[in-house]
Amino acid sequence: MPKNPLKLIECPRDAMQGIHHFIDTDLKAEYINLLLQVGFDTIDFGSFVSEKAIPQLKDTKEVLNKLHLTGSRSKLLAIVANIRGAEAAILHEEISYLGFPFSISETFQQRNTNSSIEESMETVKRLLELCDLSGKQAVIYLSMGFGNPYGDQWNEEIVAHWSMELVNAGAGILALSDTTGVATPEKIKQILPALLNDFPATEIGVHLHSTPDTRLEKIQAAYLSGCRRFDSALKGFGGCPMAANELTGNMATEDLITYLEKQGEVLNLDMEKWQEAALLSQSIFM
After folding, report:
1. Is residue 240 annotated as a catalytic residue, yes or no?
2. How far is 242 from 209, CA to CA, in rounded Å?
C-alpha cells in the first residue's frame, strides 16, 4: 500500500479562473468559507499572478482577508507564476502551500508563465528557497504531464527526466497534471506507478481534467496505481484558460468522494457543509 496518506485538494480557484463575468469578492469568500468547513486537506483558493492574465483572481488578497480559518483543518494553497508572485504570497502567514505550474511542454510554459522550461526550472529553485525561508511548502504541477495539444514532444522519458530534476532540486510535492484532458487510464497506469516507485519520499498526486464521461475511469486508474493525492472541484467546474480556447473541466469532487468511499476510505467530511457549498455554487457557476 502507498505510504502517503489520502489527501483531497478542493480547487475553487481552478473552478473560478476561467469564468468571464467577475464574481463578487464577498461571494467568492462565502463559497470558500463553506468549503473550509467540509474537511478537505487543502483548499486551492486563489493566485498571485498578473490580473491581466487571470482577471477573475485579482482580488485574491481581499478574499484571503475574509476567510474564516479558525476551526478549519484545511490548509490554503495559492498559485504563483513567477518569483514576484511568490514574494507576495509568502507575506501571508495563512497560506501554507505555493503552487507553481511547471510545464514539460515548451509551448504551454510560454503561454502560461511567459518563460521557457529552463527558465522555469530556475524559478522553481528560487521558489523552493523562498518556501524554506518562509515556512511554506511548494507544490510543483507537472503541467501537460500526459501529453499536449501543441505537437510538442512528449513521452514517459521526458516526464521521468523533469520529475527527477524537480525532486533533485528539492521539490517535496509533485502533481502530475492533465491540463487539457488528454490522459487515458492506460497512460495513467504507465506513468504513475513508475514515479511513485522511483520517488518514494516525494508526495505525488494528480491534477486531472476530464469530460464527465471519462472522470471515473481516470480516478480509478490513478487510485489503483497507488496515487493518494487528488485535486478536484465541485461538479467538475473549471479548467485552465491558458491551455486552450475550450476549457476541459476538472475532476468532479462528488465523483471522487463516491469512488473513494466505495473503496472503503474514511474521508471524515462534513457533507452538510458540502451540500451548502453545492447549493451556493449555483449562484457562482450557473
Report:
1. yes
2. 14
